[in-house]
Amino acid sequence: xxxxxxxxxxxxxxxxxxxxxxxxxxxEGADVxxxxxxxEKAKAVAEEVKSIGVKSIAIGADVSLSxxxxxxxxxxxQSLGRIDxxxxxxxxxxxxxxxxxxxxEGWDQVIDVNLKGVFLCCQAVGKKMIEQGGGxxxxxxxxxxxxxxxxxxxxxxxxxxxxxxxxxxxxxxxxYHVTVNAIAPGFIAGGMNTPILNKEILVSGLTxxxxxxxLGKPEExxxxxxxxxxxxxxYINGTTIVADGGLTGYRPVGFIDLIAEMMKRx
Length: 266
Ligand SMILES: NC(=O)c1ccc[n+]([C@@H]2O[C@H](COP(=O)([O-])OP(=O)(O)OC[C@H]3O[C@@H](n4cnc5c(N)ncnc54)[C@H](OP(=O)(O)O)[C@@H]3O)[C@@H](O)[C@H]2O)c1
What we know:
Blueprint: E1 7-10, H1 16-27, E2 31-36, H2 39-50, E3 56-60, H3 66-80, E4 85-88, H4 104-132, E5 135-140, H5 144-147, H6 153-173, E6 178-185, H7 200-208, H8 218-229, E7 240-243, H9 255-265
Parallel strand pairs: 1-2, 1-4, 2-3, 4-5, 5-6, 6-7
Bound molecules: NADP nicotinamide-adenine-dinucleotide phosphate (NAP).
């Protein structure tokens, strides 16, 4: 029960990895605020979380709208008294398009939710954490924020931005005992990837690139978030933990392969 007595706000927790964070945090004793734009789905997850034996409330709010974020934070504090942990998980990746085909609204949609939304939630919750004397913020980035991905320009840019936002906020808020870290998951078998999990060619194409030769599991990301949310990570600040099965370090051909090829040719 590493999070007993803590209150966690997890954005985008109505499904996917966010829902797994909510359940994982509750199992460690945290009271959890469930958020998504869809209030009914948020209520259903809050009921599930309550059945674990902690408090939970559902708040429908769009993280890209400052008035929604302000209301969400006020409602959360009114109901549960404080926010100790913030997981900025809400994210969208609604299209695969080459740069020349992206419309302005498409660019705005992705950047507004994935980057501006993280800033708005950090700012609104961060102010409360500063008043409270501390807190822990965990931002969900992606390996795509390091590597970039063709067809995912705004998504890649937004996730790179989340890592820099994490670093600068950590510098600024260390003096208030607010730590800010990020997680960059690789290809995870769940959440927004669910529709492609039965597409053999896509899954094998993706896993081939991963040195561990498999997709990640949502629970493998939850464990990292629990670590960053607990006192076990008390000296970690401003960093991004990558969980990608080795993908970011992968090169299709390395020195050892070239030497082997050279020896083969004589
Ligand atoms: N799955 C992966 O392989 C993977 C890999 C790397 C990083 N990530 C990141 O992990 C996070 C979770 O992804 P996921 O795969 O679990 O996605 P998902 O299944 O599509 O879930 C996204 C969640 O965000 C919420 N959401 C979307 N827009 C929102 C908004 N404007 N305001 C508030 N909530 C919003 C959704 O609820 P509503 O629709 O009800 O709003 C939903 O609960 C994202 O940041 C994603 O970029 C995922």
